[in-house]
UniProtKB/TrEMBL annotation:
It is found in: Cytoplasm. This is Protein N-terminal and lysine N-methyltransferase EFM7. The lineage of its organism: Eukaryota, Fungi, Dikarya, Ascomycota, Pezizomycotina. GO terms for biological process: methylation. Keywords: Cytoplasm, Methyltransferase, S-adenosyl-L-methionine, Transferase. It comes from Aspergillus leporis.
Amino acid sequence: MADAEDNFETGDLFKDPEGFYEPEKEPTFAEHHMLSGQKVRVRLVGDHPLYGNLLWNAGRTSSHYIEERAHDLIEGKDVLEIGAAAGVPSIVAAIKGARTSVMTDYPDPDLVGNMRFNAELSAPLVPSTSSLHVDGYKWGNPVEPLLAYLPAGSTGFDVLIMADVVYSYREHGNLIKTMQMALKKSPDSVALVIFTPYEPWLLPRTETFFPRAEENGFRVTKVFEKLMDAVLFENDPGDEKLRRTVFGYEIRWADDQLN
C-alpha cells in the first residue's frame, strides 16, 4: 500500500488552465502639453480605482494655471500637491522653477510607485535648482514627514495644489486639517482648489468645503470657471455643461490668523 501511495501522481490536476487568469492590464501613457511647448509624459495605472486611465481636466487646468503665473506663484517657492495621481501639476511646478515640489497621494504602493516613475521620467525637464519628491500621504495625517523635504528653516509650503480632491464630502475636514498643518503662515501662501463636478447633483455638497474652510481660518476667492471643449465621460448622467466646467479657487490665510 505504501508503494502505491509513493508512486501516486497528480499530473496537471493543480495547474491552472491556460487563460484562467486575465492578464494584467498594461499601463498606458499620456502627454500634457505645456503652454511653453514642452511635453510632460506620464504613466497611468490603467485599472486603478483611484484615478484610472485618464489625465483629469482639473489636473491639466491646474498645470496651466500655475504655468501662467509661475513667476509670482511658483519660482523659488515650496509646493505640495495632495491627491496627485499621475502628478502632472507637481512636475510642471518643478519644471517652472519651484524650489521644492512634493507629489503625494494615498499611500498605496502602486500609486506611490507610479508617481515615482513619473518623477524620474520627467527628471530631464527639471532644472538643477528645483527638487522633486514623491511620498504617500493620507489626508489629515501629520505632515512632519512632508515638511522634512523643505529646506532648513522653512515652516510650511508656499503653495498647495488640490486638484479634484473636494469631491468627497466626508474628507472635507481632513483636507482642511492638512491645509492648516502644511500651508505656511504667510499672506502670500495659497492653496489652489480646482475641480470639476463629474456628478453635478452633488455640487452643492462639494461647495460646502469653502464656507467650512472660512470657518477654520481661511479666506476663499473664486478665481475662474473654465468650460472645456468636451466632457471627460460621455455616458455619465447629469448636466453636461457642469460636467465640462472646471472651477478654480484660491484659499489663503484669513488676516486674523496672521497676527
